[in-house]
Amino acid sequence: MLPPLSLYIHIPWCVKKCPYCDFNSHNAPQAIPQDDYVTALLADLDQDLPLARGRPLHSIFFGGGTPSLFSPESIARILDGVASRLAFAPDIEITLETNPGTVEHGPFAGYRRAGVNRISFGVQSFDDAALKRIGRIHDAQQAQRAVKSAQDAGIENLNLDLMYALPQQTLEGALVDVEKAILLQTPHLSHYQLTLEPNTQFAANPPPLPDEDSAWDMQEACQARLAVAGLAQYEVSAYARVGRECRHNLNYWNFGDYLGIGAGAHGKATYADGTLRRRWKLRAPRGYLEHAATHRRIGGDDPIAPEQLPFEFMLNALRLNAGFALDDFCSRTGLPAATIEAKLQSAYARGWLERDGDRIRASEFGRRFLNDVIASFLPERTGVRSSGVVSRNDG
Question: Would the pTM of this model clear 0.85, i.e. be above it?
Answer without folding.
Answer: yes
